[in-house]
Design brief:
The complex is a heterotrimer of chains A (about 100), B (about 700) and C (about 180). Chain A is mainly alpha-helical. Chain A contains three helices and no strands. With about 700 residues, chain B is an all-alpha fold. The chains are: A mainly alpha (about 100), B mainly alpha (about 700), C mainly alpha (about 180).
Amino acid sequence: MLINGFLLLGAALFSLGVYGLLVRRNAVLILLSVELMVAAVNINFVALDRFLGDDLAGGQVFALFSIAVAAAEVGIGLAIILLVFRNRQSANVDELDLMRL
Amino acid sequence: MSLLAALSTEVPLLLAAATEEGGHAELGDGGGLAAAAWLIPLVPMVAAFVIALFGKHFPYRGWDIATAVMGFEAVYGTFLLIAHLARPIAYEGAIEIARIGSFPIEWGWVVDGLSIMMYFVVGVVGFFVFLYAKGYMEGDIRYTWFFASFTLFAGGMLVLVSAPNLIQLIVGWELVGVASWLLIGHYWEDHANSSAAIKAFLTNKVADVGLFIGAIILALSVGSFRFSDILHAVEEGVPALAQFAFWAGLAVFIGAMGKSGQFPLHVWLPDAMAGPTPVSALMHAATMVTAGIYLVARLFPLYLTEGFADEVRSVIIIIGALTLFLTGLIALVQDDIKRVLAYSTLSQLGYMMAALGAGAYTAALFHLFTHAFFKALLFLGAGSVIHAVHSNNMSDMGGLRKYMPWTFRTFVIGALALAGIAPLAGFFSKDEILASFRYAGSAESGFSAAQGGAGLANIVLVLGIAAAFVTAFYMARAVFLTFFGEYKGHGHPHESPAVMWIPLVGLAVGSAFAGFLNVPGVTEFFTELVGGRAVPVLDHHAESFDVVVVVLGLAAALLGIFFGYRIWYPDKATQAERDRFHVRGLYPLLENKYYIDDLYFDGIIRPIRGPVAAGVNWFNGHVIDFVVNGAGFLARGLGKLVYAFDQNAVDGAINASGAFTGGWGELLRKVQTGRVQQYATMIVAGTVLLVAGIVIAGII
Amino acid sequence: MTVGDFFTTTENWVFLLIALPMLFAGYKVVTTNNVVHAVLALVGALAGSAALFVLLGAEFVAWTVVLISIGAVIVLFLFGIMITRAPIGLEVDLSHPRSARISAAVASGGLFVLLGSAMLAEFGDEVIPEAADATRTDALGLLLFQRYVVPFEVVSVVLLAALIGGIVIARRDPSPDEPAGTRL
């Protein structure tokens, strides 16, 4: 198996995730894009782990940690979205333009 | 094609075998019919995804596939049932899909009396409910999606029932949970409904922890997740299992309590009425709530064998008795017709659980079987009424007898069956349960004190007869308030379309005649059915009617109907009499459902939430404020220093640059939209350009 | 190695069979105009990555993805959609207008070209060595609890912090007029 196949797939999914992060208006969908990026990175981790034949399986362990952290991130992210939704009755990020003075 | 071939060759063969050997043969492997039974769980799972993805393009937008699938299940279940009665089948197929250490993870399908009974119930009741759902859900905005998740719901139950090991059972268990969550929250635009869905999901999750722990203990002490291995270990008296069997059995039972709505984890079930009525019908009859009963029945030798989890039966019988009595009383004060039925389901589940606790395996499953028919019938009848009057409240109904003749007739059959009036189905199964309590309370049963004891069994018998009275009472109330007197609602009620009342008739036939499958001393079809398992279940089986129990049970039911008639039949009682029934001391307690929801909220959620909030507040007030104040103090000192410098030297330069900055600012202001994502786009583009520049510079 | 060589081994075919639907699913996640479809597409992409992990011989990571990402996280997302009443069904303006989409496509396309060219330059046509056997789950378990026990504990603290944080952020003071049964 070509290592580049996995890496290019990871890069493509990551870029798709970035695209989604930039164009989505709905906050839930933005989190979804972030999740896609995390999945892409995990593919790289595992593929490179097998490529390097690491006895300590560092890549796989790191992928496990990143899955756990992604789960935590989704939990907090959705909690924040919920709070925003309660206060503003909308989950659209472009209605949150308080950064403009 | 191979399946059709198998069906066409196997069934006549098995029937021929039956006539030759008189229906009493050794356990067979069921031939191709059982070997192909992996189709039972697989077909609805695949169909659920097909409906979700492509259902909209079909002529009936997904309903056609879903109903065809359930029809297939009903036919397959019936064939298996016939084949099993001809020659008992105990077949187990499995495919290893992964391996964790020494534990194989398998996907399999088990075909024996117990699972065949469940396939039949899910298939037949499910088919009628799906048929009915076409009329009920007509015009729904998420019509196709509803049938996708509904098929997933039935499919999850079939995965659970077909599981030969605990892992697959848990997969099915969770599939049912997720599908029920989707369905209860079907009208999630209304906040109460999505709350009810989440409540059902979370209450079940609490109980699921018990199931997980129980499964792990069982697997570790036996060395396998397979039911057959666990039950063989019980048969052989493996000491490693005997040592932990009590705790494993208790933990598994806690899991069963959640799904089967046993007191005090029953709180999700009445709220689950938020879903569409066909969902309630299927959930209360064939899928979901029967899962807990099925699980305990599947592992029943573990609970029956002395030295293993037999002492858990004292817990099971107490919980079951509490459930059957307390929830039945709540049903008396509900105005929402679906809630009356929901609490009645809880009460009937209590009967089944208590019967399992008393060691009456066949009686409990027989009640599950008959209850599936009449409870589905009652829910669909209630749905038909709700469809007609656009209200769930019985105070908006009344007098519907003349407008909806078919609904009325079938509903009354269901109500009488539930009340246990001979010779309808509920009479035989409830009588068998009550007889089993009486048997457990007698000396020859050997029901030891550690297992519950004869005294407890007699108390449960009294509670059971009292609950039979209550059942008849609230069903009489529901029938009289809904169908008799004057119509109190708005609009013009009318009989539902044929696609809705025909399933009612089908289920009414089942409710009327299912009881004859197991008449003590006359027919034993059902006993043979659920008894046909690889590991036999040795429960007591009555040879004839227990006359005392029959008389007491029937008398209680008739008395309940009579009281209901006196109090609730229009013009039979004055308003004052009804009010007197209201103000009795019990009423507020029942109206508030014994304050259990409040207990959960005030006793568990608030105390946990309070300290967490207080802790965070303390951290905020002390640690963070300290840091912020310290930083502020430092900054102020620095500011004073800078100010002196600023006043003298910098001012001049600033004023000169001010004009310059102002000009650029005007220009850049247009970029500062305050939209984070626009900024992020620029950051990504900038980073790419920067790195590309470095790379290109490096190459050059 | 030529393009022809790539197609001679079965493994590469399997890889393509998984990777191409994944790319399509990823594309759907960021472009579809239906919230639920986006979630389902993400399920597809994650399932594909789990399949790739099995192909690579990392079975435990594959099962973890199935259980945690597909199982738990997706349910969380559906909760989120339900609670925020995000529009289910076709919705035209889930994304920003065309001008913003074009600039974002240019930026992320540039990112892909940059990453891809760097990888092609670095790894060329090197292949993943044939492993003797898959990483055994028990070996990985031992590693996690011996070699990596400190980071493991740190991650568990992060999860706990996220749990408490989620409750604190999202909790709502109960208003007294709501009946007990409906409060959550």
